[in-house]
């Protein structure tokens, strides 16, 4: 059977101990596909609400079903994968997404829409922790680089999903969602080949990879994890304020057109995608703790200026905000995985699930707040969120501790 180029690369590269570029490219590509398909459902809400005469409560239940399976299940999947690796679970997870998309395309009732949302979310909950494990397997010790390569695919996919929904699904109707099942099938093929590498080389690589020895006292580990979770809260609630309400802020504050507001949002999202790519490699060189510190606390001057800037400087300021803030997440994931050696999947599931969940909850809370106090005041309040970055000073410096091998 002739293999697709990404699948062939995944099966032929990365058998040695160095960085497996082919594997990283394959999972980043599949991350793009996964997050593109995942972002389709919210983009279809206006059409679904009209077609099925749904109430906002029913839309909210759809969102809850999707988010529950896509975020809260991730740590459980990660714990199970750490204890009992399943090399082909990535392809199986993409299979859940495939079935969910087919149901979404041909659903004739609300119950089937709920089931479709649950299946798409379940596919995502399997994909993220396991693919993050594969990124660490393929890193060759460059853990930050591997996480950044992996995450840039997801950033691109999340941006592409709404555009594809606007240009393909909305003009052609709900049944055109079936076209995206081809992307899920392609992802299954690539991930099946990644599974071959995972089984033959990946598990052994992860077992013998040098890991930074974390402190032996549980209370120190728990304190460090609490700090990391607070930093994720700061980062993703602020990102939610931009991704969900930035266009409304521009329209309300500067009276710009919808098209202009979307272009400003694109500038921010592009900056965030670049920031996510550079944060990991810098963490490999300088230490994850320092990248975490700089990327969250360092964005504070720009967020404080943003609510008081004119239109031109608002656009300029969102570039460093996106670059600096987005560089934190690869470093946070790598730091937490170093802190808890041997629990790579659990850590990935916890932080990817938490990031997704916090972004959704943050968007809902900020929306309610904006209804009561106005969108301008919301941005003035959110500007102080990066102050939580001061907590990074309490994180131990893992780079100063000796390396050891996994048991």
Q: Order of strands side by side in the largest beta sheet?
A: 1-2
Global Rg: 21 Å
Q: SSE order in H/E notation?
A: HHHHHHHHHHEHHHHHHHHE
| Category by helix and strand content | mainly alpha
Q: What is the number of strand segments?
A: 2
N- to C-terminal distance = 38 Å
Shape: globular
- What ranges have pLDDT less than 50 throughout 5 or more consecutive residues? 1-16, 211-216, 401-407
- Overall pLDDT level: 82
Largest sheet: 2 strands, antiparallel
**How many separate helices?**
18
Portion in strands: under 5%
In percent, how helical is the residue content? over 70%
Short description:
This protein has 18 helices and 2 strands. With 407 residues, the chain is mostly helical.
Write the layout of secondary structure elements.
Blueprint: H1 5-12, H2 21-38, H3 40-43, H4 45-52, H5 56-72, H6 74-83, H7 89-106, H8 110-138, H9 143-172, H10 181-208, E1 210-212, H11 218-254, H12 258-286, H13 288-297, H14 300-305, H15 311-326, H16 328-339, H17 344-373, H18 375-382, E2 403-405
Antiparallel strand pairs: 1-2
